[in-house]
Structures are given as structure tokens and as C-alpha cells.
């Protein structure tokens, strides 16, 4: 199997991570593109003694820490990028990397230590630092769109444990839109397959046509959203999920939100 074939299954998830790290699909994809260009230019330098996914993310981090692509003008920018830069001034990159890599991407602490060249104990400290700093900066009202009662209750508990309020739990597209218009949320957590066979994707589209709000999709069918053929969600969690993954995604989504932007 060629190196390209080994890396291909991991690229959608590296793109997800890059978007979450930078707060921009444009910038995130630019870093992923630069990573692949570096691998193609010097395949002999790709780490051969580790799992291909680890090697891919290690190469990405080398590019991300040295190329400063976010300083270059790019098309498709929006207010989220300005918000991200304002927050980045308050939160150093390493804690955010450690948080995303462990909670969102599912790497072990030892893996992350390898990826960012630190000791495991330092990685654990970075994760705690990131959670504390981000949670201190962000508070929001959250709409949950989920038709499975047990899952909905679990998500609600996670949201409330982080100090946020839950405006409603909607189980259909119609319910979701009505609740969003009744009390405009600062964050939406949405499944894509709802109780009456309606679509959470359509519900989110309806909501976003009326208000601007960050969205986290939580779904057992990530392939429906990670197509590369249209703007993809910055935050996408696969079921079954870890509670730490949901917490990390919520913190990161609000990290880039206008409503909680630093003054």
C-alpha cells in the first residue's frame, strides 16, 4: 500500500482538526494542503516508525508552527477569523492543541506528547489550562436538537456542567426552528436524523437563514457531512461520543463566536 493510500482515510479528520484549530475552513484547508505538499516533496522525511495517522498529524504540526499561513491574506474570510485572533491573543496555542488532540481527535496523552514534542505530564497540564481558560471566557444559551431521550439528557448534563443554559431540546425539524426563533440560542448541538424522519441538517439550514449561531453536529453518520463538496461544519462529533469530546467541541465553538468575543 502506498503512503498516499495509507494517509487518505485520515485526511477528512485532519481537515476537521485544522478547521477547529484555526477557526476557519479556508485557513485549515491551507495548512492541510501545505502538509500534503511537504509530504509529496520529501516522502523520505515522513515518519516511518509510527502509525501513519500520527505521522500525518506530526507533519501537520510542523507546518502549522512554522509557516504562519494565517498571516497571509486569503479569500472567504469572515468575522469568525477576527474573533479567533482576538481570543488567540488571550490563549496560547499549545493548550488548545493539546485539548483538541486529546478530546476531539482521540489521541492518547502519549500520542500528543509525541505530536507536539512535550512530556505527557505537560500535555495533561496543558489540557487543564485550556479548559479553564476557555470556559472562563464563554457562556451561552444552548439549543439541543436530538430525538434520542437518553442521548439528549446526556448532552444536556454536559452543557449544564460547563455552566451554560439549555433553552430547549427539540426532536424534529419543526420543533428546532420554532424553539430557535422563540429564544435565540448562542449555540446549537444537532443530530442529523430526527424523530419524524426530518433532517437536522435542514433544521440547521432553516435556523441559520434567520440567525447567525455556531453549530456542532453530533451524528452516527459523519460521512453525510464530510464530503468535501460543500462548506463543511467546523465542528462534527461522531456517535458514540466521549463526554470530553463534546466538552471540547462546545468550548472551541464558543471560542470563535461573536457573542463571546473578547472586548
From TrEMBL:
- Give the matching InterPro entries: CheY-like_superfamily, PhyR_sigma2, PhyR_sigma4, Sig_resp-reg_PhyR, Sig_transdc_resp-reg_receiver
Tell me which domain of life the UniProt entry assigns to the organism this sequence originates from: Bacteria
Q: Which SUPFAM superfamilies match?
A: CheY-like
Q: Does the keyword Oxidoreductase apply?
A: no
Against Gene3D superfamilies, the record matches this protein to: 1.20.140.160, 3.40.50.2300
Task: Kindly state a single biological-process term from the GO annotations of this entry.
Answer: phosphorelay signal transduction system
Q: Which residues carry this modification: 4-aspartylphosphate?
A: 191
Q: Pfam families under this entry?
A: PhyR_sigma-like (PF22233), PhyR_sigma2 (PF22029), Response_reg (PF00072)
| NCBIfam families reported for this sequence | PRK09191.1
Q: Which residues form the Response regulatory domain?
A: 141-254
Q: Which UniProt keywords apply?
A: Phosphoprotein
User: Which protein, by its recorded name, is this?
Assistant: Chemotaxis protein CheY
**Phosphoprotein as UniProt keyword:** yes
Amino acid at each position: 500500500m502506498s503512503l498516499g493510500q495509507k494517509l487518505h482515510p485520515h485526511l477528512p479528520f485532519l481537515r476537521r482538526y485544522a478547521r477547529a484549530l484555526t477557526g476557519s475552513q479556508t485557513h485549515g484547508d491551507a495548512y492541510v494542503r501545505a502538509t500534503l505538499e511537504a509530504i509529496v516533496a520529501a516522502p523520505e522525511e515522513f515518519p516511518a516508525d509510527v502509525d501513519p495517522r500520527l505521522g500525518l498529524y506530526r507533519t501537520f504540526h510542523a507546518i502549522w508552527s512554522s509557516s504562519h499561513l494565517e498571516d497571509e491574506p486569503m479569500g472567504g474570510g469572515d468575522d469568525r477569523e477576527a474573533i479567533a485572533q482576538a481570543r488567540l491573543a488571550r490563549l496560547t496555542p499549545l493548550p488548545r492543541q493539546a485539548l483538541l488532540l486529546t478530546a476531539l481527535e482521540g489521541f492518547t496523552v502519549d500520542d500528543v506528547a509525541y505530536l507536539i514534542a512535550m512530556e505527557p505530564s505537560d500535555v495533561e497540564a496543558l489540557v487543564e489550562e485550556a479548559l479553564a481558560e476557555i470556559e472562563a471566557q464563554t457562556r451561552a444559551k444552548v439549543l439541543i436538537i436530538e430525538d434520542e431521550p437518553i442521548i439528549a439528557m446526556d448532552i444536556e448534563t454536559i452543557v449544564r456542567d460547563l455552566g451554560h443554559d439549555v433553552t430547549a431540546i427539540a426532536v424534529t425539524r419543526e420543533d428546532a426552528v420554532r424553539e430557535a426563533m422563540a429564544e435565540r440560542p448562542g449555540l446549537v448541538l444537532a443530530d442529523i436524523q430526527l424523530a419524524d424522519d426530518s433532517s437536522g441538517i435542514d433544521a440547521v439550514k432553516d435556523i441559520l437563514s434567520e440567525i447567525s449561531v455556531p453549530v456542532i453536529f453530533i451524528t452516527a453518520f459523519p460521512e453525510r457531512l464530510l464530503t468535501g463538496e460543500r462548506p463543511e461544519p467546523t465542528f462534527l462529533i461522531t456517535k458514540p461520543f466521549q463526554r470530553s469530546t463534546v466538552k471540547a467541541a462546545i468550548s472551541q465553538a464558543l471560542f470563535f463566536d461573536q457573542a463571546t468575543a473578547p472586548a
